[in-house]
Amino acid sequence: MQNEAAAQSAQKQKETMQQLLSIHAAFIRLYADQKLPVIELSSRLRSTNPKVADNLDEQLDKNQKQISRLTSELFSPEKLKQLLNLHATPDYLNDSDCLVLFMLATKKKKKKIGDLLSTTGDSFKARNYLLKKKKKK
Q1: What is the pLDDT at residue 69?
Q2: Suppose 25 and one of 47, 106, 128, 136 were both cysteines; which one would form an S-S bond, judging by CB atoms 3.0 to 4.6 Å apart?
Q3: C-alpha closest to that of 91 among 137, 38, 23
Q4: Is the predicted pLDDT of residue 42 greater than 80, yes or no?
Q5: What is the mean pLDDT of residues 23-44?
């Protein structure tokens, strides 16, 4: 009976983690679906209509600030602790590190994560390396 209860508890925990990852994956998809097309449109308009491109860039900046606030709430070290059922909050991780870990957990390609974070592939690789280095300390 204890084994059955433990198995049920483990299954429930697994389902909860999958639901949380699904929610976070939906957030990341929404963020990508909104950000990347606007950046592409702004780039195309830059040569023909710089004022409109500037307006799009301003709106992107506003959106980025809102996304940053929301990201801090959704992808905090405390949320990571809950998601992974950790005993202590990883104090060496900041909100940005947690966002990267959530993105990696949702099996996003590293190039896509780099695009979402507005960084190059090489810069993201370096960031990923530093994150692994933090984890080892």
Answers
A1: 79
A2: 106
A3: 137
A4: yes
A5: 80
Average pLDDT, the chain: 77
**Beta carbons of 86 and 11 less than 8 angstroms apart:** no
Q: What's the token pair of residue 28?
A: 């990341």
Integer CA distances (angstroms), 99 to 6, 7, 59, in order: 31, 30, 22
Decide if 57 contacts 45 (C-beta within 8 A): no
- Residues contacting residue 84 through CB under 8 Å, at least 6 positions apart: 17
Angle at 38 between CA 32 and CA 43, to 5 degrees: 125
pLDDT at 51: 92
- Residue 43's pLDDT is what? 87
Closest-CA residue to 21 (of 70, 74, 63): 74
**Burial class of 4 by CB neighbour count within 10 A (0 to 12, 13 to 18, 19+):** exposed
Residue 21 exposure: Cα atoms within 13 Å on the Cβ side? 16
CA-nearest of 100, 92, 96, 77 to 136 is 92
